[in-house]
Amino acid sequence: MLIDKLKGHTLILASKSPRRQQFLKELGLSFEVRLKPVQEIYPPGLKGAEISDFLAELKASAFEGELKPKEILITSDTVVWHNNRSLAKASDDKEAQQMLKTLSGDWHGVITSVTFKTSKTQHTVNSVTKVKLKKLTDDEIWYYVNTYKPYDKAGAYGIQEWIGLIGIEEIRGSYTNVVGLPTQLVYKTLIDMVG
């Protein structure tokens, strides 16, 4: 069991996301949250998983030289990829509604990258889930954005919220990945690390 293998190790989650924190709790893992401000800017020309990999690694680099032996840092970033462009977090109602109109009635990719960093090693994995949204009405989009204020979410929606209940027609891949952390992949990677 991973819980037994991690005895003597300290897991550090560098994320204020309540969803990521909840997933680690549900996996039965003890961890502490350590946050560092990072400007989430990536070089132009990166696509899809290259963006989320870069940003997860950027967040990990803020801890360079600080980790003690037996500490494992986890950083993560989620990107919504649609029509060859990244949909980041919306800054206001108008931008959130526009993003949802763009995704409406079409497939998009949700990519979450996770970086695992120790005092000696660094390893990044990612998971891609394909999601199909139904054709959303303007009223549905307006109601969701105004009720749920999804400004902290890539692509301006949370699959675990109202819009996911009424709008997701099909999903191919990990559900937890779309929520913000591919738990099966995190579990497997930690097992491989502490063997």
CATH topology: Maf protein
Structural class: alpha/beta
> Average pLDDT value?
96
Share in β-strands: 25-35%
Q: Helical amount among residues, as a percent range?
A: 25-40%
Order of helices and strands: HEHEHEEHEEHHEHH
Our count of domains comes out at 1
Total strand segments: 7
> The biggest beta sheet, please?
7 strands, mixed
Shape: globular
Give the termini separation: 10 Å
- How many H/I helical runs? 8
How big is the Rg? 17 Å
Name the poorly predicted regions: none
**Which CATH class is shown?**
Alpha Beta
Q: Give the CATH architecture.
A: Alpha-Beta Complex
Question: What features would you describe in this structure?
Answer:
There is one protein chain. The protein has 195 residues and is of the alpha/beta class. It has one domain: Maf protein. The chain is built from eight helices and seven strands. Strands 1, 2, 3, 4, 5, 6 and 7 form a seven-stranded mixed β-sheet that branches. Strand 5 (107-117) and strand 6 (122-133) form a beta hairpin. Helix 4 (93-103) crosses helix 5 (138-148). The radius of gyration is 17 Å and the shape is globular. The N and C termini lie close together (10 Å). The model has no long low-confidence stretch (mean pLDDT 96).
Summarize the structure.
By secondary structure, this protein is of the alpha/beta class. It contains 8 helices and 7 strands. The longest helix has 13 residues, at 49-61.
Features:
alpha/beta; 7 strands; single chain
List the helices and strands and how they pair.
Blueprint: H1 2-5, E1 10-13, H2 18-26, E2 31-33, H3 49-61, E3 71-82, E4 85-87, H4 93-103, E5 107-117, E6 122-133, H5 138-148, H6 162-167, E7 168-172, H7 175-179, H8 183-194
Parallel strand pairs: 1-2, 1-3
Antiparallel strand pairs: 3-4, 3-5, 5-6, 6-7
